[in-house]
Amino acid sequence: MILRPLALIAALGLPVAAQAANRECAQSPGKVIELCVFVDQGQAFYQVSRRGVPVLAPSTLGLGFAGEPRARYTALGNARRAAVDTQWEQPWGEQRLIRDNHNELAVTLTGDTPLNSSVGVTFRLFDDGIGFRYDYGAIPAGQAVSVTADHSQFRTVGAYQAWWYEALGQERDEYLYTQTDARRITLAETPLTMKGENGLYLSFHEAALVDFPSMLLAGDGAGTLSARPMPWPDGVLARKTGPFTTPWRTVLIGESAGALADSRIELNLNEPSRIADISWFKPTKYVGVWWEMHLKKTTWGSGPTHGANTANVERYMDFAAKYGFGGVLVEGWNKGWDGEWTEHGDQFSFTEPYPDFDIRAITAYGKAKGVELIGHHETGGAVVNYAAQLEDAMKLYQDVGVSVVKTGYVKHSGDILDENGGKQWFAGQYMVRHHLHAVEVAAAHRIAIDAHEPVKDTGLRRTWPNMISREGARGQEFNAWGTPTNPPEHTVILPFTRMLAGPMDYTPGIFDITHGKAEVTERVQSTLATQLALYVVLYSPVQMAADLPENYEARPDAFQFIRDVPTDWETSRTLAGEIGDYIVVARQPRGGKDWFLGALTDEEARTLGQPLTFLTPGKRYEAQIYRDGPDADYRTNPTALVTERRIVTSKDVLTFNLAPGGGTAIRFKLLN
Amino acid sequence: MILRPLALIAALGLPVAAQAANRECAQSPGKVIELCVFVDQGQAFYQVSRRGVPVLAPSTLGLGFAGEPRARYTALGNARRAAVDTQWEQPWGEQRLIRDNHNELAVTLTGDTPLNSSVGVTFRLFDDGIGFRYDYGAIPAGQAVSVTADHSQFRTVGAYQAWWYEALGQERDEYLYTQTDARRITLAETPLTMKGENGLYLSFHEAALVDFPSMLLAGDGAGTLSARPMPWPDGVLARKTGPFTTPWRTVLIGESAGALADSRIELNLNEPSRIADISWFKPTKYVGVWWEMHLKKTTWGSGPTHGANTANVERYMDFAAKYGFGGVLVEGWNKGWDGEWTEHGDQFSFTEPYPDFDIRAITAYGKAKGVELIGHHETGGAVVNYAAQLEDAMKLYQDVGVSVVKTGYVKHSGDILDENGGKQWFAGQYMVRHHLHAVEVAAAHRIAIDAHEPVKDTGLRRTWPNMISREGARGQEFNAWGTPTNPPEHTVILPFTRMLAGPMDYTPGIFDITHGKAEVTERVQSTLATQLALYVVLYSPVQMAADLPENYEARPDAFQFIRDVPTDWETSRTLAGEIGDYIVVARQPRGGKDWFLGALTDEEARTLGQPLTFLTPGKRYEAQIYRDGPDADYRTNPTALVTERRIVTSKDVLTFNLAPGGGTAIRFKLLN
């Protein structure tokens, strides 16, 4: 036997008993969260508690690399601490001023393989959760490494219920959530939200996902979740060049579901903006040549039923201008939509409109009315084709005055092919790179991106504020053709799961609830009031009014709320809620003194008493209320809507009588 | 919130405290091994001890399926027990009669997901180890299911050293082994062999790998190994149709390294032969037009340097006939070898010889001399191309009297593409199916397969006795061009690791040790005596004499051993050995009264005293000894060989003075 260098080190590297010097602890600013990191028996661990209640049992840390045996961490050292309490301003968002109040603990793990010889781990402790990331700063500059394992664990303590879906394989994130004992999780997407018998709510996610694969979480049947980054086709998790840091892995910890929704950890763990001037992007509402295609009234493809024809688009522009919408989305405008486009996305041209779509006439027409074209780039998952045209595609849109582009990566077979024909997961490192590259090219052309079938949001809008919104969940489109369509609980699960990641372009506002379908599971499963409340509950800086113009003009009573509701906010608060049951959200418009409120329930009728303490004391407001009619029910009478006006103050308590599948939307208009 | 059926079951499925009825135990026939299986906290576990010493701590069981939350096992039931003590005969092999002495414990796990509602687990306990497999017999016939997780664990207790290599990605198994603390295992191929501070030797592997992905083992840094079946390109581990059973997962447990090598669990856990008449396959030695290509004297490709020309092949046939070899392997005989063939294996034709290779003339020429052509099918990893020609290819060989075909799957880029262009791992379910299909087509044509770049052996030769040998490790070919070539320890690691799986076509017998290379790490790193001993140590029913004819004729003293050594055995015993240090193996020829012995050391000189108690008492033998010369050293004087004859009996003790990198080969010829 030859003892090779690595084996020699292993033979000498006897387990080191945990010593005081091998353990470092820190608390969050309000002493709510405590975290310790330590080395024992060759492994590095962290553990977390909240006000003395164990949240995470000792959980392993670190990455593994190709060509190296698993590291044995022999010491913990070089602890550095920092306390931060600052605030910063979002150029647009659900909250203008964001407080960043955390204590930082950074340590170095000393390991016995070359790439692990000195691993930095930085923890940030907030009162509502933690984040940590690895700093492989000791890997020499330019050295290429392959990450083949992520040993990051989250070992929960006690019994939890989880809201999750199986993140199987390579498909996009468009599933219904299921609720189970958290020990039954197989492989779950994040944010992964759980509710404990101990009264705690947890959500696991990551922040600042840049040039690294998106992380899934695998359950072990006993409450431990392990990081599972989406691999390259050859099984390597990440290809990096030294030195590098990883994304932040985050755990939100609160005593209510709303505490998770109102956490700003996600944004705080991202870097400040790299875009000097984002003033060209204005949050807006938009309509579009879109729902009519989902209803099969017109088509994406060319021919006599082609939806994206100049006359039709100008009709939408007239409507938009009349009712104050800033944009008109048009899908199916460019060559490539004919035939099974999800299987040959490489036929898409992003610079050649169909002949009946006169892009310059349309944009000039809109400009005269103060309405922008919302651009659209459906790639069919053919990212190589899209990347090759990206510069020209963005330049065209910039030339004609488009400032927002919705992108799409629909691929029914689930296969996204790279330059080498390799099948890429939808959010592996390759696609993470692609999406950010698209955003950067777009930024150079003063274009904002609203990505559908995206990599999940990890707060990158702070750094790239033209990365404005995304899909990444089952949106309203499933209410056109889903089997089944979204059940009422879906939109009271999203605020505590998917929405923790960031804005979602859910496209609310379908007024023709039944759209000709007899079965409730084949059409929108909500009341009309719910469709209004969604504009407040599901935040996005671009909000679609998804239905057809004629359906809005048929219900001017309800439509008034959509006309009034803004898409940019001074502040936002989740006033009440339980995951999958109900939610009440209030938001104050940016630069305004009004407030808006949205309340939703699941399939059960529910009466909620809501104190209005968020209103400015001493002020009078006209509450313009859009609520379910007395006999409303999403199954039998979805469009029964009552509008009423009441004078209220911060001392009042409003009672919401939510119908099954129902909701309430309110504008609180400041009177004096 | 809607409680869907699964969630409802979860809510009711409270953890069940372990009860007597939820625990079943069994012992091996000699009461050496004890195993218990139980259900606790919703999970199913097994644990193993040997004479009261814990070997495996409670380790989880079960598979996971797409579309199902993780099972909660709520009860253990229907325990069935059996005791087996029988023996069966191998048609050829390292041991004619195989004793199968085990106790069986089969239980049913009751779970709360549809596919896990009733999971059978069958354990077989031998005195030298265990095997277990799952029986998903309750899945309805014809129901397609996707296995997405394998929860099988092996939780070792205490400190072990392991001999392993990193099973990264999709490459074949041709690596040097490294020795480390077993906790440093990242992802390892099996057989995975370990030596404990407690004196126990363990080896983890599987048996009867049919229509299921090959299993790798992932370490967790703390001694737990978890099954990691090689996935399909989309991440699914196995696509099965109900009902089905899995391969056996095996653990060999012994008090010596040799005990692992002499275990027959692997064969015993395979099914009896499905080939009624295998008499047409005769174990044999062979030479070949092969090493001269590795030395770049001739080429696989066509042209003036083409090795596979009729005249050259007939020269090898003359040599084979003269010295008693049964076959001549010829590589490079068929169209497709020109250019970068590993990247376009789809250009291979398996029915069209190059014009200078007259296959019918050659085989007729050989037949007249009693020498067979050993066929060769190099696929370049293009399995679709190979599968399409398989029937015709085997028919051609059958027509010309070929009964052994060496196959190859060399693919330097590591990508094996399936019919859909998907990149398949070299031993995922797709390739497991492919290799067995090739063996079955071959069997129909009375052809035996010696697969290179194969799926690892799991004892399938019992069921398909035309699956005779394989590569699946770093063979002698690396001594032609490896960087570095195989160090001396390699061949004293293989018997306790790779060889536990089954026969290996290592191709020993290189006499021109240096083959013109000055650096020891660029040529064969052994003495000449070692090259002889390998014929005994590394079992294969087809053994190559890999060197050039002229090199054998230059050393008739050494060559005599190769001429004498058989390739089929009555019995085999590992007399001594330590992993990576040394080994002594004795084998008795099938149908003969002689014995053969091979001894090897690593890079250290070693003196071993070997009692000859395996010889028949009262009989006299002429020991024809081939040993290192007194000043032999693999670095400085590799070809110093002493041959001597001594009369010995079973009461004698032979002392082997093994040079660095040296060995000893002995034929014990019965005298009376």
From TrEMBL, chains A, B:
Report keywords, A-Z. Answer: Glycosidase, Hydrolase, Signal
This entry's Enzyme Commission designation comes to 3.2.1.22
Q: Which residues form the signal peptide?
A: 1-20
UniProt cross-references to Pfam families, sorted A to Z = GH97_C, GH97_N, Glyco_hydro_97
Q: Where is the Glycosyl-hydrolase 97 N-terminal domain?
A: 27-272
Residue ranges occupied by any Glycosyl-hydrolase 97 catalytic domain in the UniProt entry: 290-473
Indicate the enzyme's highest-level EC class. Answer: hydrolase
Instruction: Identify the residues that the record assigns to the Glycosyl-hydrolase 97 C-terminal oligomerisation domain, covering every copy.
Output: 568-669
Please name the GO terms that the record assigns under molecular function. Answer: alpha-galactosidase activity; carbohydrate binding
User: What name does this protein carry?
Assistant: Retaining alpha-galactosidase
